[in-house]
Write a structure and sequence with these properties.
The complex is a heterodimer. By secondary structure, chain A is an all-alpha fold. In chain A, about 70% of the residues lie in helices and about 0% in strands. The two termini of chain B are about 45 Å apart. Classes of the chains: A mainly alpha, B mainly alpha.
Chain lengths: ~325, ~300
């Protein structure tokens, strides 16, 4: 009888004091998760509601007492002429960021690893990592110091050269380049360090063997370093692709000083659109339709990217 | 003897020609300069005199230097000093709370024998791939938890991230052997004692890493303020910087606001003082980060382990 119980232990263990104690330890963080992650997920239903705020009542009461509106909020969103622009900007910018960011940071990581002086390499890394620790608000001040209409360095130089100053913050055509440049400025050092740390984890005997076989440095990079980096590259790729419907809000909003007016076409993304709507008097239902779409699309893309990677190479998938 | 041979071999491996090395070095010097020049530029503006800025604009070599901006910030900038206080308070409280919540959950998930392990793993994992988005978080935080215009709106939403919890779980799994926990249990220690007296003291590098992530996150945050804070007394330094910039834009875009706005503008910090504020934000980061870079990178690499 007792033996039976013991062998059954593997399948169905009794609840012990140990489990109670661990549950108590898990409660505070779980409460946080419920309040700040799962309640907002439930809150996504307001995209299908004609959300009304009743004075003095809390959010859950309001949700249950608002009328269903079906897909009216979505129709509203689809009819709005801005939808195409913000969707295009969000996706296209993200794809450019992913491709350029990856090529640049992998390339630079390999290059910095090859430098003869390790001390210089450390100094470069430290300096290039630095922008990552600046907030976009501060970065916007940096950019403003160069682009400001009256006092910015570029316009001062243009004026000194006898040219007409340019109103950078109203010139839509320069913003794609500025945004890509600033994105790379802030993130390359950080990404480079991630790749660099996996390069330094590569077994040196591989290189030794390659040298024995007469491989030159370029061949070593091509046939050893890059294949060894594959799984990190794929992981970063999945993480970034999963966020393809989210934009780095600070980048688009702070640098362009609001992503509004004449540069809307080249700087507005889903997030800046939602934020601006939240600050104005646009009905909350319509903007929540936009975020609902964003959450679902994000979830689907991350699962899809992971699924594809799993098909190609099961070991590299992260879920 | 063989060691010397090894060294000769390995140095031979890593060698690139002097010419290539020079080209690479030039490229990296340029890139490093691009990364650091904006900070230097802002600093130079902050020590330029107001008159020089007014007549010549922002210059790398101003016609006249002055430390008036910093004097202004410390003499008259009660707003700025209060914001500095809020920033420090939020960062300290948030980091402490965040480290506690993250390590607790990480520890629980690291215990393989725990019955609800699978359930709590899902609790942590689901938010990594699905979330409620900006609007519903905003509605929940303002109408359900009534965080609007409280300091908690700056602290609570940022204090846990699933990424950090996974880092903790991985660390505890590989650094606190099951045998240690089991022997403590045989001696009659509860999980609370094991967590507080064994797990935490053994994981100082982990706590440093998590604390570092959180500190940078809180110090640099302006987004929570712009969503939830309307009371200027609760502005953090970042939010104040953001606010000042936004008002100046509004002024520039609506000249018709006229005299009252002009008067308002006169009470706001001048160009140099704004740049001085930006420098004040950067200084703590610039001073501490070279020391912590190691922890930061180790945290990133640990997090890269499969979750």
């Amino acid at each position: 009888m007792k033996e039976k119980k013991l062998s059954g232990k593997k399948l169905k263990r009794r609840w012990t004091k140990n489990d109670t104690e661990l549950t108590i330890l898990a409660i505070p963080t779980t409460v946080w998760y419920v309040l700040f992650c799962f309640l907002p997920m439930f809150g996504l239903v307001i995209a299908f509601k004609n959300y009304k705020v009743t004075g003095g009542e809390n959010f859950i009461y309001n949700v249950f007492h608002s009328d269903w509106s079906g897909v009216k909020n979505f129709e509203f969103l689809i009819k709005s002429k801005d939808l195409y622009i913000i969707l295009r900007n969000t996706i296209v910018y993200n794809l450019i960021f992913i491709v350029l960011g990856m090529v640049l940071s992998v390339g630079l990581a390999i290059m910095i690893d090859l430098l003869r002086s390790k001390r210089k390499s450390k100094v470069y890394q430290t300096l290039m990592f630095f922008p990552y620790f600046m907030s976009w608000v501060v970065a916007a001040y940096f950019l403003d110091a160069f682009l400001n209409q009256d006092k910015g360095l570029l316009n001062v130089m243009l004026r000194n050269g006898g040219n007409e100053p340019v109103q950078w913050y109203m010139k839509a055509s320069v913003w794609p380049f500025l945004l890509v440049f600033m994105y790379l400025w802030k993130s390359t050092g950080y990404n480079m360090v991630i790749y660099l740390s996996s390069i330094s984890g590569i077994d040196t005997t591989l290189y030794e063997a390659a040298v024995m076989d007469g491989a030159n440095k370029r061949q070593q990079v091509r046939y050893i370093t890059l294949p060894c980096l594959k799984s990190v590259i794929i992981m970063m790729f999945i993480l970034n692709v999963g966020k393809v419907f989210y934009s780095d809000f600070g980048l688009f909003y702070q640098l362009s000083q609001g992503a509004k007016g004449s540069i809307f076409n080249t700087t507005a993304t889903i997030d800046t659109f939602v934020f601006n709507a939240l600050q104005s008097s646009t009905p909350i239902g319509m903007t929540s339709a936009a975020t609902f779409f964003q959450s679902v699309a994000c979830c689907i893309t991350i699962l899809l990217a992971n699924w594809i990677v799993r098909k190609l190479d099961a070991d590299s998938a992260i879920i | 003897m063989s060691k010397r041979k090894d060294e000769a071999l390995s140095s031979n491996l890593n060698i690139i020609s002097r010419k290539t090395d020079l080209v690479f070095n030039i490229i990296f010097v340029i890139l490093a300069l691009i990364c650091i020049i904006p900070v230097v530029f802002i600093f130079i503006i902050s020590i330029s005199s107001e008159a020089s800025i007014k007549t010549y604009g922002y210059l790398f070599w101003p016609k006249e230097f002055s430390i008036d901006s910093y004097a202004f910030v410390f003499r008259e900038g009660t707003t700025i000093l209060r914001s500095l206080g809020i920033s420090v308070l939020v960062t300290v409280l948030g980091t402490a709370l965040g480290v506690m919540l993250t390590t607790l959950m990480g520890y629980v998930l690291s215990r393989r024998e725990y019955k609800l392990n699978g359930f709590f793993t899902m609790v942590v994992f689901i938010p990594m791939i699905f979330n409620g988005g900006m609007i519903s978080s905003y509605v929940v935080n303002t109408q359900f938890m009534h965080l609007k215009d409280t300091i908690w709106a700056l602290i609570l939403p940022l204090c846990v991230s699933s990424f950090n919890v996974v880092i903790c779980k991985t660390f505890f799994r590989s650094n606190i052997p099951d045998s240690v926990v089991e022997s403590a249990q045989i001696d009659g220690a509860s999980q609370f004692i094991i967590f507080g007296k064994i797990a935490l003291p053994l994981s100082k590098p982990l706590m440093a890493t998590i604390a570092l992530f959180l500190t940078f996150g809180y110090w640099n945050d302006w987004f929570q303020s712009s969503l939830y804070i309307t009371n200027t007394k609760l502005f953090s330094l970042q939010a104040l910087l953001d606010h000042v910039q936004r008002n100046i834009e509004m002024m520039a875009n609506n000249p018709s606001l006229g005299v009252t706005m002009q008067q308002y503008m006169n009470t706001m910090p001048k160009e140099g003082a704004r740049m001085a504020m930006a420098i004040i934000i950067i200084i703590p980061i610039a001073c501490t980060y070279p020391f912590f870079q190691k922890y930061f990178i180790s945290g990133l690499t640990v997090g890269a382990v499969k979750g």
